[in-house]
UniProtKB/TrEMBL annotation:
<dbReference type="InterPro" id="IPR003593">
    <property type="entry name" value="AAA+_ATPase"/>
</dbReference>
<feature type="transmembrane region" description="Helical">
    <location>
        <begin position="492"/>
        <end position="513"/>
    </location>
</feature>
<feature type="transmembrane region" description="Helical">
    <location>
        <begin position="417"/>
        <end position="438"/>
    </location>
</feature>
<dbReference type="Pfam" id="PF01061">
    <property type="entry name" value="ABC2_membrane"/>
</dbReference>
<dbReference type="GO" id="GO:0005524">
    <property type="term" value="F:ATP binding"/>
</dbReference>
<dbReference type="InterPro" id="IPR017871">
    <property type="entry name" value="ABC_transporter-like_CS"/>
</dbReference>
<keyword id="KW-1133">Transmembrane helix</keyword>
<keyword id="KW-0067">ATP-binding</keyword>
<keyword id="KW-0812">Transmembrane</keyword>
<dbReference type="InterPro" id="IPR003439">
    <property type="entry name" value="ABC_transporter-like_ATP-bd"/>
</dbReference>
<protein>
    <submittedName>
        <fullName>ABC transporter G family member 1</fullName>
    </submittedName>
</protein>
<dbReference type="InterPro" id="IPR050352">
    <property type="entry name" value="ABCG_transporters"/>
</dbReference>
<keyword id="KW-0547">Nucleotide-binding</keyword>
<dbReference type="GO" id="GO:0140359">
    <property type="term" value="F:ABC-type transporter activity"/>
</dbReference>
<keyword id="KW-0472">Membrane</keyword>
<feature type="transmembrane region" description="Helical">
    <location>
        <begin position="459"/>
        <end position="480"/>
    </location>
</feature>
<feature type="transmembrane region" description="Helical">
    <location>
        <begin position="718"/>
        <end position="739"/>
    </location>
</feature>
Amino acid sequence: MPRIVAADDDDGTQQFYSMELNSISSVSDSTLGQLLKNVSDVRKLAIGDETPVHESFNRDNDDDSLMQTVPFVLSFDNLTYNVSIRRKLTFRDLIPRRKTEDPEIAQTATPNTKTLLNNISGETRDGEIMAVLGASGSGKSTLIDALANRIAKGSLKGTVKLNGETLQSRTLKVISAYVMQDDLLFPMLTVEETLMFAAEFRLPRSLPKSKKKLRVQALIEQLGIKNAAKTIIGDEGHRGISGGERRRVSIGIDIIHDPILLFLDEPTSGLDSTSAYMVVKVLKRIAQSGSIVIMSIHQPSHRVLGLLNRLIFLSRGNTVFSGSPASLPRFFAEFGSPIPENENRTEFALDLIRELEGSAGGTRGLVEFNKNWQEMKKHNRQPPLTPPASPYPNLTLKEAIAASISRGKLVSGGESAAISTATAATTLTVPAFANPIWIEISTLSKRSMLNSRRQPELFGTRLATVVITGFILATVFWRIDNSPKGVQERLGFFAFAMSTMFYTCADALPVFLQERYIFMRETAYNAYRRSSYVLSHAIVSFPSLIFLSVAFAATTFWAVGLDGGPMGFLFYCLIILASFWSGSSFVTFLSGIVPHVMLGYTIVVAILAYFLLFSGFFINRNRIPDYWIWFHYMSLVKYPYEAVLQNEFSDPTKCFVRGIQTFDNTPLGALPEGMKLRLLDSVSRSLGTTISSSTCLTTGADILTQQGVTQLSKWNCLLITVGFGFFFRVLFYFCLLLGSKNKRR
């Protein structure tokens, strides 16, 4: 009778549950593998959970063969990848030259081709770690990308098969995970929160939240980061977890759904020896749970080498060794360069490869020797890897994946029917995304707001900027009167205020640029839809815009002495909010195009300056040249500017120029008042009408006509401004759709 005991791990950092059997020697390898795979289920039974996350696939308890795990073998043959490299442009190329028919000279003008992968072949199976080694530029990351379907279709030659069947892109996305070299994490979330959000994205909605939490807790124990579960990730300005823990969290995010295939690009890069060993030890446990683990690694230590099952050494895109770590000494001994005793095998191999790369002949000899070595192994003993005996030996790949899901693999959204030995009628239903769109929007919004709430200084700085700008404008344009000079001052205030709304939106530029690679990593394997991200981004940013709009309007409306009363103030708030909305959407759209923050700021400042130039303040619409009039209608500042002008000058009873005020802003304005009255009387007699010092000569409608604000009402201007905001959000979506394929070409 088995009993459950708690035991300390070697590193003393975590607890795990093991089963003590009376006759461990009688347990078959497959049964032991199943016990290792279901260790998390045993833990749940120990704490009293009656419904473990991993459901046991066992239709017949008397059939011991059902305890075997579903085997998988990944094979790849003759992978070749070439890229075109154009010749650098020199000053000589700028000088016109006559055409030549010499084919050799003509050939130098065409792009050169560089081979990054050259007929790479290999295979590995579940329970194993395959490591790709080589110097920088050898093709390690390129091979990982090729296996993970991160190279555009048509550019990569060769085949990648799982259990003998070619992997389709959609299937690979669901059953695999890819861990990037950089740790792309939200800095203000804790380890537990980070993994929980990953579970919300990758695990299906049908799985209760309690089981998702149990999955996260089991994963935290498996990763050995239980002591850091409540600690924030951290960044340069906030102290958080260590580098090794960050790397394990990055791995945890991508294995939350327990993938069958796991690809990692240099997971030990930048870590010390102990941290690197801990990371690979975690990967070994993942492999033993029934996964295939393939990673690139720069220079493994002796302890790390002991955890690896298969090695592929690359040199400039060619295979120079492929086999088990144990066969390294014999391989290099037969090549004529035996590995000295007490020396790290991989270090010796890498040093020898680098030495050969620097020689005249390069590594051609080693490449040819490896080909002969592989041929000799095939003839002597080893056929290609085939899945071992299985209760269902004739399963197709989809049926094998379905069986793996039933046995406990938490492939996101995967649902499989029962497997029938008689009919083999297994179907696999794998939706493209684990959750519906509203769940994705809710989860994305919750994560973004939580991360922002823990950085209140960001919103505080933006609010302070808006309030200080409003205060300066209020004190400069304090209580503007209704004179001709007051009209000019109002026009200047409105032009500056509306353009300020857009310039203050420039701080939205780094938001997506900082999240770009997190977004690309998460959407590469269908964690959520791109449309969900766009909608969530808009929803999260909108509440802060409301606060900023009310703060600026309250600071300036009454202090400047604007007209309209309560309804005028309400419209003033709405047009400011619409300006913030369209400006924020415009900057967000640009962040989806430009790759760098500084480049983005340069473009934003330049374009907003053009918008202000053509808004109608500096030059009237009727005076803009025909060949530039299109820019006037594209200007984001034009519509808010015209809206606030109509809100201010719409009262037909309000007068802004009376009698002798008509001489203001002219050389006659310096004359004495008596002289102005006599001039006004002369003008009256000439016109045949009576114009006194109190006669209204210019109303608000006259000012709107002078400014060319006659085509649209203020409400139409408001709607157009809001529409611009939605338009740029749609453009942002298409930028994400077309610009985040995350594949090499």
